[in-house]
Structures are given as structure tokens and as C-alpha cells.
Amino acid sequence: MSVWKLKRNKADTVKMASVLNIKEPVACILANRGIGTYKAAMKFLLSPRDGLYDFELFKDSEKAIDIIKKAVTNRLKIAVYGDYDVDGVMSTTILYKALKYLGADVIFYLPHRQREGYGMNIEAVRHLHELGVKVILTCDNGIAAIDEIGEAARLGIVSVIIDHHEPKYEKGPNGEKFDIVPSSEAVIDAKQSKCQYPFKFLCAAGMSYKFAEALFKSMNRSFVYDDEFMAFAAIATVCDIVSLLDENRIIVKNGLKLVSKIENKGMKALIKLTGLEGKEINEYHAGFVIGPCVNATGRLESAETAVKLFSTDNEEEAYSLAAELVRLNAERKDMTSKAVEEAIEAVNLTDLKNDKVLVIYNSQIHESIAGIVAGKVKEAFYKPTIIITDSGQLAKGSGRSIEAYNMFDELLKCQELFEKFGGHPMAAGLSLKKENIDILRKMLNNNCCLTVEDMTSVIRIDKQLGFDQIDIELALQLESLSPFGKDCPPPVFGTKDVSLKRLSLMGKDKNMLRFTLSHNYKTFVGVSFSGYEKFCRILNERNILIENILGGYMQDFKMDIVYGLNINRYNGRESVQLDIKDFRF
After folding, report:
1. How many helices (H) and strands (E) in the chain?
2. Which long-range contacts (CB under 8 A, 24 or more apart) does 44-51 make?
3. Which helix (DSSP H) or strand (DSSP E) does residue 168 occupy?
4. What's the rounded Cα separation, in Å, for the pair 437 and 305?
5. Mind listing the pLDDT tens digit for each residue in 372-413?
6. pLDDT of residue 336
7. Gap between the Cα atoms of 360 and 341, Å rounded
8. Which of 61, 305, 492, 544 has the most CB within a 10 Å radius?
9. CA gap 128, 134 in Å, rounded
């Protein structure tokens, strides 16, 4: 059961609409996103590429550029040390291709998810030293690699860190935080307390794109990869679920338009084999089609396959590698479905259901999909969830959180239990001894201050509408507010006392609802993808069979609904369709 809450703002949305030449509900959406000035509104609506901040504003930016520039010029062997998720793959690809083009002696290294786990490890550092590496450039990791960077320094390897994760910290006597960062020659991370960079939520690929641009500029070279790298950064930004405001919005809004236009042979092959050829790539395609294929390599085999895909200039090799990504993703889907079912059953049938923080141990779940499973279980119960599985002598876990629970801070309180951990407020990864799993569960739940209200999902309604306010022009203006994602959700509206005129079932399993709804003398079609069981339950409470409704027997059903506005495009025609999020009689 979700709670409905109507958002409030103090803006004069009628005046905003007039000045910006938009409809008043659209102005209300902007105000609800905290946009209260003409300048901010135009930046949000237009998202110009020249609205990005200067890379030089990052702490240690000049040092980092200088180190890498000298390494390129002096032909010192550089290793780009990335990660195995989409952000890690895209940032590695960006840095590797940029350095290679500039004439660097460069290799890339991605840790193996099962054998090495997230982030740097000392054995890998020693291996890179044996290969003759003189400079390590990390991306999407490194901020927590205190010992590993120390080992690199002992071996005479210079390191530059590009990361967007939270640094560990200690608290002073007055509760102030002091960052604990590696002794690297340069640390680029806006989350550092001493970094004055104005936007704190770039993902690693966004940072790598900007680093590459600054490096090309410093070497007086034309930035030939501008569009390609922005497209890569856009996909990573969507997939890493970082805030889609400010710089990230600019990167995603502009970058997604470039994905199908760039001449990258690997991306072209992947687009074709996933059925996206000829389509305008949006955030759904990035997050739920392209992204999972890239992720699947790092989950089930090696993420190096994905970097090779986006780095190759051979068309035949590109199609072969893209086909492998698609195959692995299909395998990953089957594994995930089974694991989610088992995890939900484990909660429902044990005393886990009484916990506020779900710590679920299942040795049979493939560790590579633990994060996906944690996300699905979190959605099912709306509780912070950590899925833990076997990984040789140790256990490994991935966590996903809810708005009211800072998972990174809560795990930090238990850090003595871990061999390794890292993350941010909404997600984390960890490894620990198996005997510590139950201790972790007890500690997290004993420390947990979540209330019933915190653990109740909330649908935040942007505005109440009458159907007489809805038309295709409004739907088109709302569509132009995309991309939608974290901190910029799709607009949600509410309407009371809507008449249900007709009902039919859709989908392969006939478990999706298609409503014909009327209000204020206007009628629209509404579709609910997840409301079938709730609708049947309400009818059952009233001793009404759904078969009677489907057969045409209609009482005067009145509903309150919350919904998004979609545009249904078919045979060259456009019509408004309501995407029903929830309803009540």
C-alpha cells in the first residue's frame, strides 16, 4: 500500500507559465523540482552543452592533467584501472581510447567480479607493476583504496584517482567529518569535503569525459571524441542512477541524442542486435536495453569484453562481441528471475519478515546478480535490502536502500565486520566472513531507526488535474522535460471522482488493466501494468466478479487515480494515454 502526497510549492506558476510560454501544469512541475528563476528554468529546458562546469574546478585537476600529460609525452606505461559495471566500462573505454589516440603506451585493467571483487586489490597492483606500469589512472574506484594505493607507491607507481564514491571518514570530537583518502598524487572526487566543484553527483564516466576533454585541450589537440564520449557518459549516467539534474541532465539530454549517430562500430552493432536500430534512444533504452547487456559481461564473464566492443574498429569483431553481450544478458535475466523469487519467499516464510533491514543469505545466488536481486526485493517490501552469497572462503553482498536510510553510513558503523566495503547512501557492496552475516543482520536492525512511515512507499503527486486540462499539447510539453530519473522523476498527476466506463485485460498473461475513464466530460484510456491483483481484491471485497465487469456489467464505479501522461504513437497518429500508477475506489 502506498501513501499519496500532493507536492506543494510557493511559486506563482501562472506567471511562470506565461513568461516561459508553457502550460501551467508544466510550470508547476518545474517549481516542484526547485526551479524558481528564469535562468534556472531555461538551463533545465534547454540543457545547453556549454552549460557544463570547467574541469579545472575539481580539487587536484591540474595535478592530474599534468601527471597524465607527462606520462603520455614520455611514453610511460599507463594502466586505466576501471570497474565491471556500466559506469566502470564506459569510463574505462573513454580514458583508454583518449590516451591511445594521444599516443600513450596504455593498457586497461578491469577486476574480475568473482575472483577479485569491486575496486583495486594489491595482487592486481603487483601484476601491473610486473607488466611495467608506471602510472595507474583509476576510474569509478580508488577513493577507498588506501592500502592498494600505498602498495602502488611502494612499488614506484604514480597514481591518479577519478572516482565519484563517498570517501571514508572519521568524526572529530564535535561530530565534524574528516575524510580518509588514499595518498595518491591526485584525487579527483567531488565528494571530498575540500573539493569546491559545484556539482557533486557526476558518475565516473561523466568525470572521465570531462577529464579527456581537458587533457586534449592541454595537449593542444582537437577533441575528436566529443560526441562519442558524451554518448558513453550519457548511458553510464542513466545506468548508475545518479541525480539527473544540473550537469547530469545536460550530459544525458544531449548524449542520448548522439548514441545512434556516433560512428562507433561496437555501439552500432549492439543497437542493431537489441532491436533499437532506427529508434530515438531514450533513457529507457539506455537503462533497460543497452545497459543490462553491458553489465552482463561483468556479471557472468569479464567486463573486458564490453570495453573491447566499444574500442574495436573491426566491424566483424564488433558484431561478434555484441552478440556475446546479448546472449549473456538473456542468461542473466533467467538467473535473476529465479533468485528474486527465492529471496522473496525466504522473507515471507521466515522471521526475516519482521526485520526493518533485510539481510538475506543465499549461497546459491550468483554473486554477480546480487545487486539486481537486492533492488527487486527492496521494491517488493520497501525495506533496505542486502543480498549475500558465497564467494569462496568469504561471503559477498550487495545492498540497495530506500530514501530514508543512508546505507553507506549504517554500514560504516559495522565496518569491523567487513573485509571490504564501499558505496553511497542508496547502494553498497561488501565482503565479510560467513560467521559475521548474522552479526551484521542483528547490528543493522538494532541500530535501525526507521519508522513505519519511512518504510511506506510514497507516491508524490505533482498536481491535481481535471481531464479538461489534459490534451496532446500538454503531453508533448511534459515529454520535453525528459530525461527522467533520480531527482527528476516523471511527472505524476492525480484526479478524483473519475468514472470507470469500461475495463479490459491486456498482455500475454491477461494481467494488465486497460481502463476507459471519464471526467469533466472528457474520456481517456488508462493502462495499469501492476494493478490487476489490487483491482480484483477490491472487487472481491464488494462481492463483484471481475468477469462481470469484463462482460459489460458496470455499476457507477468512481475512482481516484494517480497517473503519468504518455503519448501513444500509432500509424502516424498521436493520442494521450494515462499511465495509471495507483487507484482507489
Report:
1. 21, 20
2. 44/249, 44/481, 45/20, 45/480, 45/481, 47/249, 47/250, 47/253, 47/254, 48/250, 49/230, 49/250, 49/254, 51/247, 51/250
3. strand 168-171
4. 33
5. 999 999 999 999 999 999 988 899 999 999 989 999 999 999
6. 93
7. 13
8. 492
9. 9
Q: Please enumerate, as own/partner, the contacts of 413-417 that have beta carbons within 8 Å and a separation of 24 or more.
A: 413/443, 413/447, 414/440, 414/443, 414/444, 417/443
pLDDT for 571 equals 86
Cell numbers placing 452? 513505519
How high is the pLDDT of residue 135?
98
Q: Indicate the DSSP class of residue 287.
A: I
Residues 6+ apart with CB under 8 A from 484: 244, 283, 490
CB-based contacts of 297, cutoff 8 Å, min separation 6: 84, 89, 303, 304, 305, 306, 324, 325, 328
Per-residue model confidence as pLDDT tens digits over 183-210: 999 999 999 999 999 999 999 999 999 9
Residues 135 and 132: their CA atoms lie apart, in Å, by: 9
Task: Tell me how far apart the alpha carbons of residues 118 and 472 are, in angstroms, rounded to a whole number.
Answer: 47
Please provide the distance, in angstroms rounded to a whole number, between the alpha carbons at the two ends of the chain: 14
Q: Which residues contact 327 (CB under 8 A, 6 or more apart)?
A: none
Please tell me the predicted confidence (pLDDT) of residue 545. 77
* Cα dist from 129 to 95, 111, 302, whole Å: 20, 15, 21
Neighbours of 440 (CB within 10 A): 22
pLDDT digits (tens, 9 = 90+) for 46-56: 999 999 999 99
Of 3, 51, 396, which Cα lies nearest the Cα of 250?
A: 51
Q: What is the chain's alpha carbon radius of gyration, rounded to the nearest angstrom?
A: 25
- Give me the pLDDT at residue 520, please: 92
Q: How far apart are CA 492 and CA 476, in angstroms?
A: 15
Q: What is the pLDDT of residue 114?
A: 76
Q: What DSSP assignment string belongs to 112-148?
A: -TTTT-SS--HHHHHHHHHTT--EEEEES--TT-HHH
Which stretches of the chain score pLDDT less than 50? Answer: none
Report how far residue 567's alpha carbon sits from residue 340's, in angstroms, rounded to the nearest whole number: 32
Whole-number Å distance between alpha carbons of 376 and 360: 13
Q: Which three cell numbers stand for residue 98?
A: 583518449
Q: What is the pLDDT of residue 10?
A: 92
Question: Whole-model pTM?
Answer: 0.88
* Placement of cell 543469505 in the chain: 361
Angle at 415 between CA 348 and CA 365, to 5 degrees: 40
Helical spans, DSSP H, in 21-157:
24-32, 38-46, 61-73, 86-101, 122-130, 146-154
Measured distance CA(205)–CA(316) in Å, rounded: 27
State which H helix or E strand residue 204 sits in: helix 204-218
The letter for the amino acid at 359 is V
Helix/strand/coil (H/E/C) assignment for every residue in 337-370: HHHHHHHHHHHHCCHHHHCCCEEEECCCCCHHHH
Check: CB of residue 325 under 8 Å from CB of residue 309.
yes
Q: What is the Cα–Cα distance from 39 to 20, expressed in whole angstroms?
A: 11
Q: Say how far apart CA 36 and CA 47 lie, in whole Å.
A: 16
